[in-house]
Amino acid sequence: MTTTTTTSRLLVASGEPSGELYAAQLVHHLRALEPELEVFGLGGDRLQAEGATLVAHIRDLAVVGLLEVLKHLRHLRGVFRRVLEEVDRDPPRAAVLVDYPDFNLRLARELHRRGIPVVYFVSPQIWAWRRGRIRGIRETVARMLVIFPFEEALYRDAGVPVTFVGHPLVDLVGPAEGRADFLRGLGVSPERDVVAVLPGSRPQEIAHNLPGLAGAVALLHARRPDLEFLLPVAPSIDAALLEPVLRGLPVRLVADGARQVLAACRAAIVASGTATVEAALLGAPMVVVYRLSALTHFLGRRLIQVPHVAMVNLIAGRRAVPELIQGDFTPERVAEEVLALLPDGPRRAAMLDDLAEVRSRLGPGGASLRAAREVHALLQAAPDGLHPKKA
Q1: Dihedral sign computed on CA atoms, order 19, 207, 312, 347
Q2: Together in a domain, 187 and 322
């Protein structure tokens, strides 16, 4: 005997902090369209606050680099099995998979086999590497929701149903509280120049990036003792990971305050990733850095098909901000670039103009709401009883 699900059930799968933030915003808007929606899957505190039941938390999933993924493969396979067990126990009407492609593209295949429509929100970076993935996406994804304008034509030309919804950060990165009040609350004089230090949101990123950043802070402090250094600590990071590397340096840790810090800074040192887009939206002149394990970098650089690493530069279509990657990421180079950005002058003005252009290319606000409407339309189109469950 079988029964059918009457309440709409939705699987949402995100595996790292920025994707989980977008997933939570989407679910927030989706609940206004379908209040009785039942959500389960992979996420973090934000998604849980929106009423989702978590199969696993992102703190156990955020892994970056080929070698690091291999080390955690057994655990990730266990999470994958648990998700599918929950899908089979009580099948959802649809699934929203957010970024996290190595995991989510495999999950899309399994969901497609079970007849569950898949919406993919935040495209895998197939324009940068592993372009062959688009064949699997065409076979398994009902609709791709992209956040960068150049992605739409790529998918449409490949025969994948696609909608450009804009970037969710356009809404999320709004005006911060007054700079002076924010800095005084931290015990920092608003008269001082602030350098933001953003080493990443995953433990592996911290391990690779923070030593070089600490060296840069030491050099900058020696040259400019008046500078203040603020390091926002992502919710997924235990501050205890940072303190041994930063011991003795004039760096203040700010709990989950990336946007306020970027809005208050004179210049920023930012690990390549979503934080560079946040910095661009806030008009923060920046130096982009990144370091991977030597073997991961050796293998990965042969697959990269784009001229830039920083998302800001890819959106701009040129080198709008300096990129110091792997061997170029030295304390001396970072300090040199930051010192060049601090004073008013042609270089700083040109970067501010480029960042304003990047902001204009990210589309209007409302990306999460547009994404929610696309998912809601798919939920409405999926007929009752499509996925029977055991009584």
Answers
A1: positive
A2: yes
Residue 115 C-alpha from the chain's centroid: 29
pLDDT digits (tens, 9 = 90+) for 244-270: 999 999 999 999 889 999 999 999 999
| Structure tokens given for 371 | 């994404």
Residues 6+ apart with CB under 8 A from 364: 166, 170
- Answer yes or no: do 43 and 148 share one domain: yes
Nearest partner of 164 among 356, 371, 24, judged by Cα: 371
Q: Name the DSSP class of 307.
A: S
Which domain does 85 fall in, by range? 2-167+364-390
User: What angle, 0 to 180 degrees and rounded to 10, lies between the N-to-C axes of helices 331-341 and 203-223?
Assistant: 60
**DSSP secondary structure string for all residues of 304-372:** --SS-SSHHHHHHTS--S-EEEGGG--HHHHHHHHHHHSSSSHHHHHHHHHHHHHHHHT--S-HHHHHH
Cα-trace Rg, the chain: 22
pTM for the model stands at 0.80
Q: Which amino acid is at 147?
A: I
Phi and psi at residue 183, to the nearest 5°? -65, -40
